[in-house]
Design brief:
Radius of gyration of chain B: 30 Å
Largest interface: A-B, 37 and 37 residues
Number of helices of chain A: 10
Number of helices of chain B: 9
Strand order of the largest sheet of chain A: 3-2-1-4-8-9-12
Shape of chain A: elongated
Helix content of chain A: 25-40%
Number of strands of chain B: 25
Structural class of chain B: alpha+beta
Oligomer: heterodimer
Chain lengths: 402, 475
């Protein structure tokens, strides 16, 4: 009886300690320091509109999650947004309710039209370009880069068709990746392929640290999701549609969603084919691989609200850290000052000269990651409190019964 | 043609895209142009085919900018099928100091822009003799509206701050009969121009929504030209945002034209054809024009069939051969005859295009019809583009106006581009050939191999019961 009581008290003590310390650790085990994405739509002609929509959907997702345009190589084999055949000029949709215009107002296409061919694709991956090729057409990765490679189009058993007249085979891509490995051009690669018989395309990979997702097995087709009668063609494929359903719930900086969770969110019944997720000689535990390792970009964005800064003209040199001169918020357009010096210039100069005043930064925004940790810590704490009550409850019952 | 339908305004551009580069010296132009065109296509998101030598060439007698004679140092490349869309507007806007966040460029929304009749954007960089750099960006839109209002044209009135880096933000209005019907009312901004200089207006925090409501019932079904030009000089602080707003009614269009241009193919079958260019002088004086035409190598041009006919005379016009190498063009000599041949460049297979340049003098109202015949060349299987059955786009011809009498800048006109159908092979042939030959080979060789390498020994007896014969039941 005494032992039991001692034991329960010790247990209670440990639990109480745990309540006041954060428990959950981040599941980040990644080893990369920058992110790149190569998104390729390899089919031409109007009836392959959905492949362009697939590629642009992933482009949109990857941009939203943080990869900048300079790190994205987008290859579209045909341009439909401003084509005379498109009833909605400047717009490409991936859903028949036309909620999202994938083309937007800020899109950068690196390879267009006839330039999307097998030669350019392999040159892009291996980095062996002719000397004049401009910067935005090169994959300037290094040994710390995680690369997302997304291919969509028509394909078959161990090949992918480019522009309806050329093919790239699984051996070609495997060799290109091996060249990249030897030249230390990547840290990890996520290779997503959405064609018919897609899983065969990564059957020949032999380089380490590659993860591959394909949407259909040998002998299976991959299907489009739905048809849009106002455009007249299918607008998106099933795999991409369900991928987006999942990825749209991921916020930038997410540190908990694993690749496995993403893969398991799509059932074969939904996409009507058998997808496969395969890891080739992955150095770290495949279950630790996060979606944001490939789909997002690491940058610690710490936002200081502008309220805490004082605005001065260029003439002032003293570092004044208090809020006395708080001269309005730049964000609101109505408060543009009548000074000739534009306010934005002042703000940038200010950040270089002075340190932010930490005492007054009580509105400091924590990282999104930390928020997630706090959330799970709260769950844990609530669970522990319930456990304590249960312990007390049962010990009282024990006392009563004995 | 653009200028025929909408009137003459601004600087024209041919369909698709073009790149004009003028270098300091004549040497090694092709590799220099190749470098330049690749870098520029990277910046603006266009395809790299500008550097293709079968397309690009040098027009000797066409002057693209009015600064100096640039003969033989200018390289020109034109891609008529280049799509122009948001991905080209984005880098164009990124060249502006305030991008699309402040100033007049905040009006530009690609969704509205690409729904118009005509749009064209251009960037011009020139270095003058004093070594100062001039950077000029121009966006040309043709809008047809029942009601002239900013929020109708651009989808939004002009809100938000003026670009603080610009020394002047100006909206200039031309071509309307009644300027008082505008709200807000424009004022004189000098040189017989009306418009607005916007530094003060927007700082009063009102949305700027230019609205034209005519008081009389005039016929306002004209086309409105919006010409947005931005100029930057070398120190970067002197930035003029100019917005030229021209409303032109139907009656005014015909007054503005100088020439009428047409160009088409004359084809009879898959072997031969001809290119015909028609130029009509709509002005009241003589016009001095140079015509530059470059045809790719697979149109094997027969230069002896180059003929010019005029509607004023019954016989053909004689072409004087002035095929000379000149360092500086001497205008009086060029236009001495009615039609002179200035230059011919024969083509090389899979290489340079064929070029001819003519100097023409047209009387008022005269129409010249210049025709030349060609034979269609044969392309290798791999040389056909991926959508070979569509045909090849032929770059437009360039007509440029010369003459001291012109008060205007030297104007350059482009014809339409052409679509040439070459006989295409059956692109499924390699696949077919491979499958048939491999099947045939397999049948022969396979049975051969089986018979030769069969093992001596037991052969399984086949049961002779034919199970597939089913005796019918009695009916």
């Amino acid at each position: 009886m005494m032992k039991k009581q001692n034991f329960s008290y010790i247990f209670l003590f440990c639990v109480l300690i745990n309540l006041f310390f954060p428990v959950c650790l981040s599941t980040r085990t990644s080893t990369h320091n920058n992110n790149w994405a190569v998104i390729v739509c390899s089919s031409r002609f109007w009836f392959n509109y959905r492949h362009v929509a697939n590629a642009l959907s992933f482009y949109h997702t990857v941009k939203r999650l943080g990869i900048p345009d300079s790190n994205i190589i987008l290859m579209l084999a045909d341009d439909w947004a401003c084509n005379a055949r498109n009833c909605f000029p400047g717009k490409i949709f991936n859903n028949k309710d036309h909620n999202l215009n994938l083309y937007g107002t800020n899109v950068e296409i690196d390879y267009r039209g006839y330039e999307v061919n097998v030669e350019n694709f392999l040159r892009l991956l291996t980095g062996r370009h002719e000397p004049d090729v401009p910067r935005n057409k090169r994959l300037l990765t290094d040994s710390g880069s995680n690369i997302l490679v997304y291919l969509t189009g028509h394909g078959g058993n161990e090949f992918l068709k480019f522009q309806d007249s050329e093919e790239v085979s699984s051996k070609d891509i495997a060799d290109a990746f091996e060249q990249m490995y030897q030249k230390k051009r990547y840290n990890e690669i996520l290779f997503i392929i959405e064609t018919c018989q897609a899983n065969t395309l990564f059957s020949k990979f032999y380089s380490p640290n590659i993860a591959a997702i394909g949407c259909s097995e040998l002998g299976e087709n991959s299907y489009s999701h739905h048809f849009d009668s106002s455009i007249g063609v299918q607008v998106i494929d099933s795999f991409t549609y369900f991928s987006l359903n999942f990825l749209n719930n991921i916020k930038p900086g997410d540190s908990h969603t694993t690749l496995e969770k993403y893969f398991n969110s799509m059932t074969p019944k939904q996409i009507r084919s058998q997808p496969r997720l395969e890891f080739f000689q992955f150095q770290r535990n495949p279950r630790d691989v996060l979606v944001s390792d490939f789909f997002g970009s690491i940058h610690e964005v710490v936002s200081h609200p502008i309220n805490n800064y004082t605005f001065k003209n260029d003439n002032d040199n003293d570092n004044d850290n208090d809020n006395d001169n708080g001269n309005a918020n730049i964000n609101e357009k109505e408060n543009v000052n009548n000074n000739d010096n534009f306010q934005l210039k002042n703000q940038f100069q200010h950040t270089e000269k002075t340190q932010p005043n930490m005492e007054q930064s009580n509105q400091f925004q924590p990282r999104v990651e930390d928020e997630a940790i706090e959330l799970s810590d709260n769950y844990f704490r609530i669970g522990m409190i319930i456990l304590i009550f249960l312990i007390f409850f049962f010990s009282i019952i024990e006392k009563i019964l004995t | 043609m653009y200028h025929l339908k909408y009137g003459e305004i601004g600087r024209y551009s041919p369909p698709g895209g073009e790149l004009i580069a003028t270098f300091e010296t004549k040497e090694d132009l092709e590799s220099k142009f190749r470098t330049v065109s690749r870098k520029i296509s990277g910046i603006f998101g266009t395809s790299q085919k500008f550097s293709d030598l079968t397309i690009s060439a040098q027009p000797f007698y066409t002057e693209f900018n009015s600064l100096e004679s640039t003969s033989q140092r200018t390289h020109y490349s034109s891609l008529p099928r280049e799509p122009v869309c948001t991905e080209n507007l984005t880098p164009w806007l990124k060249l502006l100091p305030c991008r699309s966040k402040a100033g007049l460029a905040s009006l530009l929304n690609p969704i509205k822009l690409y729904d118009l009749f005509y749009h064209s954007m251009s960037v011009e960089v020139t270095r003058s003799q004093e070594n100062s750099l001039s950077f000029h960006q121009q966006l040309l839109l043709v809008v047809e509206l029942k009601e002239f209002k900013f929020s109708q044209i651009f989808g939004t009135p002009l809100i938000g701050p003026i670009c603080p880096f610009s020394s002047q933000t100006k909206i200039q209005i031309e071509g309307f009969s009644d300027y008082s019907s505008f709200t807000p009312t424009p004022e004189e901004i000098g040189n017989n121009q009306v418009g607005f200089i916007l530094k003060e207006n927007l700082n009063n925090k009102k949305d700027f929504n230019l609205h034209y409501s005519p008081k009389e019932n005039t016929n306002n079904n004209g086309y409105n030209h919006n010409n947005i030009g931005n100029g930057n000089s070398n120190n970067g602080n002197d930035n003029n945002n100019n917005f030229n707003n021209n409303g032109i009614n139907d009656e005014n269009i015909s007054k503005n034209q100088s020439i009428k241009l047409n160009r088409f193919l004359k084809e009879s079958g898959k072997i031969r054809g001809g290119v015909i260019t028609q130029i009509t002088n709509l002005e009241k004086n003589d016009l001095h024009l140079t015509l530059y035409d470059s045809l790719p190598w697979f149109m094997r041009v027969y230069f002896h069939t180059l003929t010019i006919k005029s509607n004023f005379e019954n016989k053909e016009i004689e072409i004087t051969d002035l095929n000379l190498e000149r360092e500086q063009d001497n205008e009086s000599n060029l236009f001495a005859n009615q039609a002179s041949l200035l230059r011919i460049q024969t083509s090389q297979d899979h290489g340079r295009p064929s070029i001819f340049e003519l100097a023409l003098v047209l009387k008022p109202g005269e129409t010249f019809q210049i025709s030349v015949d060609y034979l269609k060349g044969f392309l290798n299987f791999e040389e056909h583009p991926f959508d070979g059955n569509r045909g090849f786009d032929i770059a437009p011809a360039i007509v440029s106006m010369h003459g001291k009498k012109q008060n205007l800048k030297k104007r350059i006109y482009y014809t339409d581009s052409l679509l040439l159908m070459l006989p295409t092979p059956d692109f499924t042939m390699p696949y077919n050939v491979m499958t048939i030959t491999t099947t045939a080979f397999l049948i022969w060789y396979g049975s051969f191999l089986n018979n030769l390498t069969g093992r001596a020994g037991l052969k399984l007896k086949k049961k002779s019961k034919a199970k597939w014969i089913i005796k019918p039941d009695k009916f």
